[in-house]
Specification:
The structure holds two protein chains of two kinds. By secondary structure, chain A is α/β, with parallel strands linked by helices. Chain A is built from eight helices and 19 strands. Chain B is of the alpha/beta class. Classes of the chains: A alpha/beta, B alpha/beta.
């Protein structure tokens, strides 16, 4: 049980009513809430969480995804993956930082010294004064108009994470490599990234995380900054996880985030992006492969993009391939505030169902308060294109291999959002290997 | 080479008979053309031979080198040496032309128990053949048929044919949508592949293509059957007089 008193604190207004306080007490009791650095931000976050409670069965924002695996005080243990990691992006020169069950492991990591970037950690934030006053604020801002309790829980309880300040254009990407150690690990980590004016960073995330994970990235992009985020987690790894990306994008800055997900009993990935400056750009995309053969598969992408300035451009490209009873969810919203003229908002969510047992649930939303904008959204659910399948087979390509080609073809639009062609090719090859059973994650 | 005997085919989903006892033989090394009015069943014939879903063979048989085609999967027919050049080649975004073609070539070689081509061997062969068809290296790199013009798509079909080296090539209205220059390129590509061990079945509406690809035999198809066969002069007759007289005669 936490020893932090909340009754005297300023609690931000959040929508919805507090739910299941007992469940929250139990959830918090199982956590070892950190003390020390960022105490004020953590205390605020805990207050936010107490005010909103955990999501209940009638919570509209959790209509398609059962919150119980995330609400449970402890995760269910999961089997270990046999065999060594086969590293993705192996050919790329990068600065690798290893996290074991969500905790930074300096001995397994590269020396985090690189021109144009300062890297410290949440557990040892010495020298990261810049992070004071920023940590937790983007998450807090992201609690309106829809509450995101697991993000507040993360800010309150994250044991570790990276504090990254980018002042220039570092020569190589930063690579977060996740490893698992404990079969019941409840990994909670929180990265805070600040890109100063004109700074650029490529952030790669790979590997395998704990039995349950809760990840937050807060990314603050100053004018003209550029953040390219690519997460490609390990496959064949049944797990429960929730992640949140909170980004604030200033004038002329560019955020591109791509996630590859090939696993997950219950996964929810939320993105909350605020385009606050003119000509800001945000692209979020995901390619998801869901196979329910060896256990339930459920993957939820929930996106909320706010256009608050002139000529903003946003793209949401979400593709899910589902089979053997897998479930895919997409909730995507574009909010255009008054005055955000010349906004260009685009959203597409598509599912390729490889059998009748799988399902895709999509809720696209547009809310527009400016009169000179271009916004579109589309959502489709379909099966393999028989004409294309026949075309490939008529050339001698065996049926299974032809289906792999068509799955890759279906995912191509999402992979296009990976700007770096070399990285995109590596992801494509990895997908190909997974799909043809030649490799594992 | 290709023998079709009394072939009856209906649509799988509706009670509609398309082929009504079609008999045809294309010996090795020959080019046969099939002409016929719309709805006579020409495209159905090409799809049934290559194994597309949606058709039901109710009677008759079709063999390639003595092996029954109708029992095989489409990829097995391809490995056995059958090739269909599509009237409307399909676009496959996100799959590179070269990746696709190399997979197809090696899948067929593997199915026949032959050694697969290495990247180097494949590249060398595909570049040489692409150059003959005026297919640029840039086109080879693009996704299959995506952003290709009508002519480029048909040239790409011929490139696939040249790389796969089938023994029996069926061309389904390959001339449709082609301008004169593109038609010449396609015809040159086909003519370069003609030899004593390879046969062609060219389905077309127009005699024009047959000026470039000289057939040994021309068949007229109507209402699911071959109603008349003859030499190249038969195509000229159709071009001048239409199908009316021919069909009345056959009637």
């Amino acid at each position: 049980m936490s020893d932090i008193a909340v009754k005297d604190m300023q609690v931000p207004q959040v929508s919805g009513t507090a739910k299941a306080p007992d469940a929250l007490d139990q959830r918090l009791a199982a956590l070892d809430l950190p003390k020390g650095a960022f105490a004020a931000a953590r205390t605020d976050a805990l207050a936010r969480l107490r005010a909103m409670g955990l999501p209940g069965p009638r919570d509209e924002y959790w209509r398609y995804t059962d919150p119980r695996p995330f609400n449970a005080p402890e995760p269910a243990a999961i089997a270990r993956i046999e065999g060594p990691d086969s590293p993705l992006f192996a050919s790329r020169d990068k600065l690798t930082l290893v996290f074991v069950d969500g905790v930074f492991d300096p001995t397994a990591s590269d020396d985090p010294t690189l021109d144009g970037i300062e890297i410290t950690t949440l557990a040892n934030p010495s020298g990261a004064e810049w992070a004071e006053g920023l940590f937790g604020t983007l998450e807090a801002a992201g609690q309106t108009p829809v509450r995101r309790p697991f993000a507040a829980l993360n800010t309150a309880a994250a044991r570790d994470g990276l504090l990254i300040r980018v002042t220039g254009k570092p020569a190589k990407p930063v690579h977060v490599l996740h490893r698992r150690a404990f079969d019941k690990a409840d990994a909670i980590w929180h990265h805070l990234i600040r890109l100063e004016e004109g700074a650029e960073l490529t952030l790669l995330e790979t590997g395998s995380v704990g039995a349950r994970s809760n990840a937050v990235i807060e990314a603050d992009l100053a004018p003209g900054a550029k953040l390219h985020h690519i997460a490609a987690k390990r496959a064949n790894d049944a797990k429960v996880g929730v992640s949140h990306l909170f980004a604030r994008v200033a004038a002329g800055a560019v955020l591109k985030s791509f996630a590859l997900a090939v696993n997950g009993t219950a996964m929810r990935q939320e993105s909350f992006i605020d385009l606050i400056g003119d000509d800001a750009v945000a692209h979020v995309a995901a390619a998801v492969l869901g196979d329910g053969e060896e256990g339930p598969f459920h993957h939820d992408d929930t996106v909320f993009i706010t256009h608050g300035a002139l000529r903003g451009e946003s793209r949401q490209v979400f593709k899910k391939v589902l089979k053997n009873g897998a479930t895919g969810v997409f909730q995507g919203k574009i909010l255009v505030k008054p005055g955000a003229q010349k906004t260009d908002g685009y959203q597409i969510s598509q599912a390729l169902l490889l059998d009748e047992a799988s399902q895709f649930l999509a809720k696209p939303e547009l809310e527009i308060y400016a009169d000179d904008v271009k916004c579109s959204h589309g959502s489709t659910t379909g099966a393999i294109d028989e004409d294309a399948l026949f075309y490939l087979r008529s050339r001698g390509v065996p049926r299974d291999r032809a289906i792999v080609f068509l799955v890759l073809s279906f995912l191509a639009d999402a992979l296009e959002e990976v700007e770096d062609e070399g990285l995109r090719d590596e992801i494509n090859e990895r997908l190909d290997a997974w799909l043809t059973g030649r490799g594992r994650a | 080479m290709l023998k079709i005997n009394n072939l009856h085919v209906k649509l799988e989903d509706e009670d509609k008979q398309i082929l009504k006892g079609l008999t045809l033989e294309v010996p090795a090394g020959q080019v046969h053309a099939i002409m016929g009015p719309n709805g006579s069943g020409k495209s159905t014939l090409s799809y049934v031979l290559s194994g597309r879903d949606g058709y039901e063979v109710t009677e008759g048989e079709a063999t390639l080198d003595g092996k029954s085609l109708l029992d095989m999967e489409p990829e097995e027919r391809a490995a056995a040496g059958l090739f269909l050049a599509f009237q409307y080649p399909v676009e496959i975004p996100g799959v590179g032309n070269m990746t696709f073609l190399r997979t197809a070539v090696n899948a067929q070689r593997k199915a026949r128990g032959e050694a697969e081509l290495s990247s180097g061997e494949f590249l060398k062969a595909v570049r040489a053949k692409a150059a003959e068809l005026q297919i640029s290296p840039e086109m080879l790199k693009r996704p299959v048929n995506v952003g290709f013009s009508g002519g480029e798509k048909k040239r790409n079909e011929i490139l696939q044919m040249a790389m796969l080296e089938p023994r029996m090539c069926i061309m389904d209205e390959t001339d449709s949508g082609l301008d004169v220059d593109a038609m010449r390129l396609v015809a040159d590509g086909v003519n370069a592949l003609r030899d004593a061990g390879r046969s062609f079945l060219v389905i077309t509406h127009y005699q024009r293509l047959l000026n470039h690809i000289q057939p040994d035999v021309v068949h007229i198809m109507a209402d699911g059957c071959i109603v008349r066969s003859g030499g190249p002069e038969l195509a000229l007759e159709v071009e001048q007089n239409g199908y009316g007289d021919l069909l009345a005669e056959a009637g």
